[in-house]
Amino acid sequence: MQKNYLILAHKNPLQLSRMIERLDDGASKFFIHLDAKTPIEPFAACLEGAHIRFIDKRERCVWGDFSIVQATIRLMEAASKEQGIFILMSGQDYPIQSQGYINDFLERNKEFDFIEIEPLEEKWKPKMVKDKLEHYHILHSEERGNSNCYAPFRHCSVFQKLRTLTHLLKGRLSVKNFKLLCSLPKRVAPFERQYAGSQFWAFSERTFYAVLHYIREHKAALEGYYKYTSSPDEIYFHSVLMDLVAKDSTIKLKDPITYVNYFRKNNVFITEDFDKITSAKGKLFARKFDTDIDIEILNKLDSNQENES
To answer: How far apart are alpha carbons 118 and 144 in whole angstroms?
Structure first.
């Protein structure tokens, strides 16, 4: 089975090269979106081959912003002539199983789609749900976390107006964005119910093209809504997929195949996490890793896979 890895990268070219080398079994293609803020030359120098393609149109990716969704869609479009399974990853993922194990697992489960998914209101606390559904996510800069959610100024309470004006007077909210908030209507979601989960997924060929077709057909409505939603990469594809599931009961979902570190600062795995990683059931990959913090964990994973091969 051909595997198409769609990779969102922004740092550590040698680490990315190492990940691709581990995944490259001769039946895989790699599509890479490199953050436009990152120089491409160090990546191009260590990543070559007909099976590796860098996306020409690059987004300036900002944490929690719609730019992540845009980058993902660009990856999907770049891979839209391929067959097989499509796996969305970050450049800081790493395989935790051997190539043989990965191939066997995917072949045995080729009719399934892998994604973390649940109703949005069950994923987050009520205030965060309200921010995501009713309020507008406004970036103050490209710095991570430098943003706020605001109610549309003409359709909000006195308290919400005072909060917005306070941010304006203190210089946190720009005049340009204040004028924007004054012009925006109440938000109307493109779905009756929205769903959420980790941004990373693996779709069968049939589901991948169904999702991509849906995105193309509803581009304006989806972009118009989600460009003002905080962390839309954790909602956008999930809500599209569940709208498709509602109309096609043959789409079969399973838990994600990526083991994510939610228990350590910065979510970065280190050597002492080795046992947790290798004992994770039903997982093929893990994230995230950073060779600037701990390279030995990757060495141990490589040795473990070689021993099992």
So the answer is: 26
